[in-house]
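Practice set, problem 2.
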Amino acid sequence: DNRSTVDRVRDSLRFTLADGVHRVNHEGKGVQEASSYIAGLTATPYWDVHGGSFPWMVELERNFEIIRDELKAGLANPDLERLGNSVWVAAVRDDAEGYGPDWRTLVLQDRGEWEPTNCALFPKTAALVQAANTPSVEVFFAKQAPKTGIKPHTDFTNFIMTSHLGLDVPPAPQSWMKVGEETQYWENGKGMCADTSFIHSTYNESETQDRYVLIIRFWHPELTDHERNGVQFLFDAFDDLSPEGLAAAATKARARAALYDGSQTGADVANDFKASVRAKVNAGTGLGADLTLGDAPAATPAPPAKAAAAPKASKAAKGVAAMIAESKAASNDAGGGKKTKKNKRNKRKGAGAGEGLGLLAKGMK
């Protein structure tokens, strides 16, 4: 029920704020290490894309040429970096040297929030991801230069997984990603879904060709809607721990809960998003005003949510918010207000600058 799922998110937050680390060597699979951890989720390095858990990736595979061609058009535009927001930026996390200076990203979605400027530059890609009902948290293009790679590391989060869709990659087996003890090779039009709380690494062995993929960080398929909502609330809350910020995060959480209760439909959300993209394109900030986005089908009006639903969501949000506030206060040393290790980590900037990995660096690790 909703209460039990809120409890699991609270348990995860307590574990993280106590500097807990879940580290297990799974026999035959490899080492999993997570400081942002929800117990009970299946842990395996690579999942079968066509095994039934990822219909959205199967749909993106079918449409990969559209995404590929839109990316190529963007790369050919000399004004892309001027028009976009943080286009092809390098990794910014503390161990960014592990990624190398030539691993670059172009972000479309970050911690559940779509980036309107970049979505207007790549509206077909953004619309396809939305139309496939992708349970995305982050969406971004990633570029890896020839003869470069990412050193073995973990993303420290077991309830958000990582998928790659090959767009323009060197012929297999020249570029690869090893997750745990399993290695897979990028191929154009092929999707991969991995649990990157396992130690993983990548390399592009090509002498001349850049590797371009669409990376989507998405909710673990065994999370409930209310668990996702609870974690998203934490994303929002850690962005602004003031009373006003926490209240705003709680309001967003109640709005998302309305989706599960039937008072707002996915079609409503999709059409709102597409309207914002059209506005950008029509304003001349997109790559082509002739691009069109298919509207979501008209939804049958749903009955209003029960009045009692909102207080429940609010109470849960306030409970978790209180834990965050208490943790924030406790993380200051008594003398001089020095920041402890925990507080320093909570202030660290994360994927917002386009890094795309370590989603919970802003607050939860």
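Problem 2, part (b): a different protein.
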Amino acid sequence: EGPITVGDKATCKVDYERRRDVAPNHTMTHVLNYALRKVLGPEIDQRGSLVDDEKLRFDFSYKKALTASEIKEVEDTVRAVIENAMPVDTSVIPLKEAQAISSLRAVFGEAYPDPVRVVSVGAKVLDMQSAPSEEKWGGYSVELCGGTHVMNTAEAESFVITEETAIAKGVRRMVAVTRGAAASAERKGAELASRVRSLTNAALSEAAPLLGPLREEVDASGISAGLKPVLRDELTAVGKKVMEKKKKEMAALTDVRIQSAKEAAQQAISEGAKSLVHVISLGLDAKLINKVINAVSKEYPELPFMAVSEEEPGSQGAVLCVSWIPKQQVEAGLIASEWNAAALAKWGGKGGGKPNSAQARATTCDDLEGLQQSARDFATSKLA
């Protein structure tokens, strides 16, 4: 703390606690470079990197997003190097001799000192120096680097790629973690995978309310970038089944509602009513509600009809009013949009449409009977 001036004496100290977390991230950045080249091809080139005690970040040249299976293969390749407990060897040798090693990876455009430090994962640098053209060196990570590294890949413990994104045209970025952070990501991934698979085997009625929250949890999690899209796809598949089931149920329910509405229309006419306001309970699906409207208006073409439907019956939540009015009643002064507005006035309903057909919605309604009465009174006043 405080100002620094020329001539001040300072004591430099290495933060070995932090270095212990930086080192495995740095070494695995090298191994990730090797794994990407192995999985995606020799055209992969490093475009930048960042290493700290929490994560590693690696930018590389590639023209498209990696698939979930490619990410998993890269991840598995790095994990195999960790599981094989490969020694990490370093040696300072002449730059020209280092550059002669067949599998050497260097950052394009970087200026290196001479002599230069070579970091090899799994093979001795001096062996490579003595036989630089050997094809077998292609099976190891070899880079020019002056940074801190582990002595053995086993010290990294585990490895998880948490992000794979584009940062520029033809440049991708991977973010990954090792050690405790990787273990935590693996545990969370296994937990979420178990819950997603349990959902796929659950009854669709049980799965439906859990889909949204579980998808949000998967999206927000720091699990493997190879696992996340797989879980999303599984949830999407379940969601499609739920929607298909719901469509079939709603289609059957719509037929029931049509019959009920026709009966109500017949009764209204027999009682001399000048309009029909009827609760049909089809949620907020305007398409299905209009199907009921069309069926009733076709059979009873002279009866103004307002269909009322709550988002969830008895919830006092959102409510939708859809109105249809014959030409004669429109000419008499009953306008569909005004009818809806009168019904929903107490709850601030909003909507629009044509004089003979319109719909309006309110976000809440705590008195469905009151809504219906307001609608009936308005229609009676216009058609008196």
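Answer key, part (b): The chain has a mean pLDDT of 95. The first helix runs from residue 16 to 40.
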